[in-house]
Amino acid sequence: MYDKLFINGDWVAPRCGKTLAVINPATEEVIAEVAAGGAADVDRAVAAAKQAFTGWSKTSGAQRGVYLRAIARAIEARAQELAALSSSNNGKPLFEAQIDIEDAIATWDYYAGLAEQLDARQNAEVPLAMPGYRSSSRLEPAGVVGLIVPWNFPFVTTAWKVAPALAAGCTLVLKPSEVTPLVELQLGTIAQSVGLPAGVINIVCGSGSDVGSALTVHPDIAKISFTGSNRVGEIVMQSVAKQVKGLSLELGGKSPMLVMDDADLDQATDWILGGIFYNAGQMCSATSRLLLHDSIAPKLLQRLKTATQALKLGDAFEEGVQMGPLTSKAQFDTVMGYIERGRAEGLTLLTGGTRAEGFERGYFIEPTIFVDVPTDSALWREEIFGPVLCVRTFSSEAEAIELANDSDFGLAAGIISQDSARAQRIAEQLQAGHIWINSLQVVCPETSWGGFKRSGIGRELGPWGLSAYQEVKHITRPLSELESN
Ligand code: NDP
Question: Which of 22, 103, 148, 149 should be mutated for ligand 1, with most atoms under 8 A from CB?
Fold first, then answer.
């Protein structure tokens, strides 16, 4: 299967004959060779999706809901196998990969529910102030969509795009990251196992410059939904502009965690560590800028240092492992580059700052904390996408809010305080798409996902995630015509 692409309901050999070596980042061993497509394969996949759109777009929401639920059950039946595959490719501890698969299942079920509700919403009358006319609205699928995903949460990011696209009645071509294609390819086998009509889902692995860019310029693609870096997001935006395609962008973050003077320090320690070291910090929503009230800073930093040094690093399948390696050599080099830059800037290290000891192989980096980081430091301002936390202190609520909002990004934020009214007041002033009060990265299918400022354009999840794949159509006519018929 890995030597094929999933096009028109079948596994087919790519036309360009390239392969991608897929690596286990804990061992640096090649675990699979995956077929890589090119522009000619994108053409085939888009043609299949276009043909399938004719039938799929006319199915009822209820019918599509049946397929989405079947996909959720098929994933559930293979949950352990999929989690293990994801861990071996991404490097994340097995319990994290299991959470990913559970999140994906919840997303498929949620959009099955929204698909089922769609039929009752079609041709809904829209009250008009103007007399003499009646207007009704329809929600129609956007068309054939191109979905481009990164490597940090494979199968989850994919579910966030594929499930609402199918629920809306779109057909699609998915391009997984070349780093983590293994678990994404399983979606092809799952589509086959539930009897999804051929061409509704197509999967073309390959590089961004071959497959990704071919998708963004393809004239038969109505919309691109992209999750990834700002650098590539800008390229994608320029690419789709030429054909005025629809576009959703889920990009980077540099999210703040604000810890107020009344915080429970034990809880705060857990949430701070989880917010930056889960998935080895490779999270767009990582709370990588820590803002501490200066009255609690010395005590909390001591706890953070002790707890960070106690984290168990290792292979995803080892008992008790809390943090795995970085997912690729390229990401390892990027993160080490930022750590070197921090040293060169003369930043103060609280802990970490080196390649993790005791590992002969694998892209392991010690969980790292820099303190008193100036706001003009690259480490404070840029997304590192690794296990590196930057800390500053503040002395007033107003200062904390100002520091938190002083960023090009606005994806997420955390607030830790035992004063509920105060936490709410702060949350309302933060410029970010999702704020967590006294909780850790809680993301549910019902809530939106996306950012303010340069963290992206549009929202995934919730009803907003479905709207992203729909066109709104109004049908307006004179009342007199209706009355005479
Ligand atoms: P990249 O931007 O490097 O890649 C993302 C995807 O785009 C990959 O599939 C990549 O292909 C593809 N791609 C690369 N070049 C092009 C191109 N010219 N045209 C079209 N597609 C292209 O991001 P990473 O994979 O490194 O992921 C990390 C980034 O993703 C971080 O910045 C992170 O913040 C962001 N992210 C944002 C999330 C959000 O919800 N806001 C969630 C998760 C991550 P390939 O890699 O196969 O070459």
Answer: 148
250 is catalytic: yes
Per-residue HEC secondary structure of 304-347 comes to HHHHHHCCCECCCCCCCCCECCCCCHHHHHHHHHHHHHHHHCCC
Could you give the 3-state DSSP secondary structure of residue 158?
Answer: helix
Helices then strands, each counted (H, E), the chain: 16, 22
235 C-beta closer than 6 A to ligand 1: yes
Domains within the chain, CATH numbers bracketed: 5-251+455-474 (3.40.605.10), 256-437 (3.40.309.10)
Closest CA to 99 of 145, 57, 159: 159
Instruction: Express each pLDDT in 109-143 by its tens digit.
Output: 999 999 999 999 999 999 999 999 999 999 999 99
- Please give the Cα distance from 401 to 427 (Å, whole number): 9
| Ligand 1 pocket member 236 (CB < 6 A) | yes
Closest protein CA for atom 46 of ligand 1: 177
In this structure, which residue's CA is closest to atom 40 in ligand 1? 250
- Ligand 1 atom, smallest distance to 456 CA: 41
Q: Residue 407: which H helix or E strand, with range?
A: none
- Is residue 205 within 8 Å of residue 32, measured between CB atoms? no
Atom 30 of ligand 1, nearest CA residue: 228
Beta bridge partners of 175: 148
CA angle 48, 54, 56 (to 5 degrees): 90
pTM for the whole structure: 0.97
Distance from first CA to last CA of the chain, Å, rounded? 58
Which among 96, 184, 250, 366 is annotated as catalytic? 250
221-256 pLDDT per residue, tens: 999 999 999 999 999 999 999 999 999 999 999 999
